[in-house]
Design a protein that fits this description.
The protein contains six helices and no strands. It is mainly alpha-helical. The radius of gyration is 15 Å and the shape is globular.
Length: 100
Amino acid sequence: MKDDHHIYEVDLFEAIASLEDAKDAKNFFTDLCTPAEIKAFIERWRVCQLLSEKKYSYRQISEMTHASLTTIGRVARFLNEENYGGYRKMLEKISLSQDE
């Protein structure tokens, strides 16, 4: 059964990777997620962006986003310490596309 989970996980991420633009992504995630889940994604992504600017304390970010200090700490850990690199890669991609 665990192998099935892996297959479905890969299938989901392949579906996400095949999205063509922000409109497709919004439509897909609106179907897939609850409004609270989307709100949590938005909050974490905003926290990530603010952390990457290195201008704000966790408390300031919490005041700006209403994210908990625990959420901010978790995002910071994945941004700065974990080896997945997902946040960093997306920040780089967005930075490159804004420079063009």
